[in-house]
Amino acid sequence: GAVVSQHPSRVICKSGTSVKIECRSLDFQATTMFWYRQFPKKSLMLMATSNEGSKATYEQGVEKDKFLINHASLTLSTLTVTSAHPEDSSFYICSATDDRTDTDTQYFGPGTRLTVL
Amino acid sequence: GNSVTQMEGPVTLSEEAFLTINCTYTATGYPSLFWYVQYPGEGLQLLLKATKADDKGSNKGFEATYRKETTSFHLEKGSVQVSDSAVYFCALRNSGNTPLVFGKGTRLSVIA
Fold first, then answer.
1. What are A76-116's pLDDT values in tens digits?
2. Which residue in B102, B108, B109 has the most chain A C-beta atoms within 10 A of its own C-beta, making it the best mutation to test that interface?
3. Among all residues of chain B, which has the CA nearest to that of A102?
């Protein structure tokens, strides 16, 4: 099946620094990728829809200047948490659909756990 | 708008017990329905799906039937194993390349 990778899997940073998280579709192309945030013992909250070659679409309440999304190619989307603060600590998950086959199914990355000190 | 409601957990069962996790949804149009599973320390994996009314999705002994009349997609397994311990998410998606809408998740613990 389709594989989505994320890097890094864990990151610890100091308050005020920026952190970049990469999401890659390893064996398929994805025009659209999605970024989610998962709080402990909570469901996934959609943050934004990342479209290759165009600006991301952010959900209400998600600061676009805080969470920068770049979808530079059909296999890579990046999420940069700028000037991170402790409240940004969370589990960030990306997903993608295979444009060529089953656009109904989303394949998820393993997630990135961000801890801001 | 679209929403998914699933039973609150945690659910604790003995090995070989019957499992039901209820899921109901509200949606416009005719969504596809999914169950995803998240094992400890891992990302979400698609467990099964159904794309139209009366379809039954099945995988690894789990089943769920798309019931349009009751707007439900309950997850069932006849005999759970310790290895089934995980968090289960019900989700829906409208047609096209749109994001999933998730329920809050149900944590299942199976004890030997």
1. 999 999 999 999 999 999 999 887 776 677 889 999 999 99
2. B102
3. B97
Asked if B45's CB is within 8 angstroms of A105's CB, the reply is: no
- Which stretch of DSSP H or E encloses residue A116? strand A112-116
B100 token code pair: 């999933």
User: Is B44–A43 a contact, with Cβ atoms under 8 angstroms apart?
Assistant: no
> Which residues does B91 contact at the CB level (< 8 Å), separation at least 6?
B4, B33, B34, B35, B36, B100, B101, B102, B103
Residues of A with Cβ-Cβ distance to B43 under 8 angstroms:
6, 93, 108-111
List strands edge to edge, sheet with B75-77. B19-21, B75-77, B62-65, B56-59
Rounded distance, CA B106 to CA B21, Å?
Answer: 8
| Distance from C-alpha of A92 to C-alpha of A45, rounded to nearest angstrom | 10
pLDDT tens-digit readout, A71-81: 989 999 999 99
